[in-house]
Write a structure and sequence with these properties.
One of its GO terms (biological process) is transcription initiation at RNA polymerase III promoter. The protein is built from seven helices and no strands. The chain is elongated, with a radius of gyration of 18 Å.
Amino acid sequence: MEVINKMVTLLPNVEVLKIINETRARETKKKKHDQDSKLSTLLFETSSYLNQTPVASQNEEHFCKLVEALKPVKLTQAEILQVANLRPSSSIELQLIIEDCEERIKTEEQLEVLVGKITAVLPPLAPKSVDQGKTTNGSQAS
């Protein structure tokens, strides 16, 4: 693999997951080599991780709608990506994402409206499985 144009743009996790799934589909059709197995492992592990995050239930259309909904707030590109990737569901989570939030969003009500827009545009979070709260030896994580 060769990087042609480095740092052209930042990608939301939904786009990364799409690219990984497309690459995995292509890789399964190719002949297996040692190098391919390393790539397959990397793709599998990354896909597994992203499928456990809020992005698993999103698609590109959700991301586009989110960008439109957030335009009046004038968030930076990095902040929009973090909102899409992390899907904050409370004003506290959103305050951690937005730099200088107290200065840019004056009231708690405005912040709650913004959280409402985010939860309205992005799909509901997928229910977490019971196994996600357990460690490898089967005991509950604390």
